[in-house]
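User: quick one
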Amino acid sequence: MTVAQRPAEIAMGPRRERYLLDSERLLGPALMAPAVVYLILVVGYPLVLAFLYAFSDVTTGSQSLHFVGFQTFIAAVKDPVFLTTLRNTFVFTAISQALVVILSTVLAFVLTASFRGRWFVRFLVLLPWTTPVALSAVIWLWMLDSIFSPFDWFAQLLHIVPPGGHIIFLGQSDLAMGSVIALQTWRILPLATVILMAGLSAIPAEVSDAAEVDGAGFWRRLFGITLPLLSPVMTVALLFGIVFTFTDMAAVFVLTGGGPGNATQVLASWAFYKGVEGGNLAVGAADALIMFPVLLGLAALLLRIASRAEVS
Amino acid sequence: MAVVETKSLRKEFGHTIAVDGIDLETGEGEYLVLLGPSGCGKTTLLRLIAGLEHPSDGDILIGGQVVTHLPPRARQIAMVFQSYALYPHKTVFANIAFPLAAAGMPREQRPERVHWAAGRLGIDGLLDRRPRQLSGGERQRVALARALVREPQVFLLDEPLSNLDAKLRAAARDELKEFQQRVGITTIYVTHDQVEAMGLGDRIAVLNEGKIQQIGTPDQIYHHPANTFVATFVGSPPMNLLTRDGRLLGFRPEQFLPASAVGERPGQVIFDFAVTRVENLGSDRYVYGHLPGVDPEAKVIAKLPSTVTTPVYVGDRVPFALSGGDLRYFDQQTGTLTAAGEAKVQP
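Assistant: Done. Structure below.
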């Protein structure tokens, strides 16, 4: 038999290459590639390096790298400042995020209500999120200045300090910690508020109406219906806030530099000062890695909530 | 049990008038249906009665008391929503107990009431479940039990059957009616479905553009529509309307039958029906066409039950008969039922 000739009248279909991207086997990886490359370069590689450094004796000056097992971790933990740093990190995170949860819930309720000029108030509330952290931290630095602080002026007006008196915000341990917490709360608040606003608008209006008809007053509706329905979204907002705050060093670095003494030193800033400023890369990496189990747990929790939300 | 009254009730949203001066009064223990197309204001009217919206003008009375400015919880009403609006994070038990808790009933007294309400709706076995584990019909019963548990003066139902599939809907409609008759609580029921309205209502209030077009028994609404809106909104297919002698002439499709099938009767009117299309739906045949001798412009539909076997073909001119008493006359300008028609309407 001869090979059948393609009859002339059957036209060739369009070129196959034009439809290459219709295949999910190609399109999927192609679309994923930039994200994967980004993650490997910016997250994966430094993480591997951090692990490598933490189990070694590397310093910024040396070219050599010897594995020393857990010795670096032991040295890091034995440092007298370490415990203060650890405690500060938890205080910094816990207080700022507790404030964020309360304030963002109130704000979300206010901003989902209808009133004149709502868009402008929304804009103002979201502003801190769009401001670069260095810029906003410097503004806070000026506002908390030991001589020219506008807060002093208000304090004098309210007779909290005598006329001409000053509050040394960044020079006293408790006030410095309070200032750092205030800055962090102010920074995280917009994101949490936006997340909660989305959560609030996702609650069906009929459910709130039903509670009203069922005889529930404001507080019962709030604590019996709205907040429980909002709680999954609130958990997500909280976990985001915790992750951002636990690993944050910008607020501390710009406002207090960890001072006075080490009163506001947190793990992230401590790792930076030790590893980069102090040149002891190994101990810096070890300090940073101590945060790792906490973050791993938080990440697992976030993913679990996300997958549960998908199912229901 | 109580009478619900609205007096010149108005509600405006910006420049839109949703409810336009409605006067309504239910009977004691009556099942009143608010029927109308989407956007006619029926749900707004119900929400005004519930206290979920504040009227722009007018008054609402429940059991003789003015409740216009009282919050929903002071009105002794219960409402079932279109989506049922069950609390997704609470069990069925907690859902039904919620109104009791809100009313301040001591915790230890609540189970008895919850079991009583659940028993009446046959959902005793579901009390530990959560709403998402229930079927549509079960959710509806939970919503009803939650409405019933406080023994309200008035039930307000907002299209509670619209989320059920067609088969379940018929069964649920039957159950709803039976349930209301058993508890005997004044009920206001909103729907856009005329079959539901005709089947459930002691009386029907037909609404359009925020105004009540007619209020009456299903029979009055169907056979003596107050205007052309009611005539064409109620009934499927709608009432045929033709222009004759400066008036609108109306008759129901099922009253218009082949003359040969009905035989000769006193007071009968015969029209020549030019047939343009025939649809066989099994139980009925819909015959489309026009009446050249009366109003060649107007389309006319005849609904022939399957028991009428007279052959009717496209292109035929078939004499169709109509009982004179079934003819309705409407004013051509206002669309309202006119005296000639009214003379035959019962007082």
